[in-house]
Specification:
single chain; alpha+beta; Alpha-Beta Plaits; four-stranded antiparallel β-sheet; globular
Length: 98
């Protein structure tokens, strides 16, 4: 398993409860594919630097998790077709020795 960091932006018109449900849904997606969520950090609603899909604001969320490299494509595929997540970035974290 490799360590990954996922940042995604949820539509701004959703209330806090709907954003929390979306966070749980993404976490469940990772766990369904055999991953383990280590940390979830919601950044709240922020203004975007430029317009994305007619949106000027969004709820930012950062998740750190472990996942098998073969399952990463499935997670990205589901995020691409999501109705509430309109932008995401998934990167593999460096493995550093202490």
């Amino acid at each position: 398993m490799s360590a990954y960091e996922l940042m995604y932006i949820v539509k701004p018109e959703l209330d806090d409860q709907a954003v929390q449900q979306e966070i749980e849904k993404v976490g469940q997606l990772i766990q369904t594919n055999g991953g383990q969520v280590k940390k979830v950090t919601p950044w709240g609603k922020r203004r975007l630097a430029y317009t994305v899909k007619d949106q000027r604001e969004g709820h930012y969320v950062v998740e750190e998790f472990d996942l098998d490299q073969a399952k990463v494509q499935e997670v990205e595929r589901v995020l691409k077709i999501s109705d509430t997540v309109f932008r995401h970035l998934l990167v593999r974290q460096d493995e550093r020795k202490p």
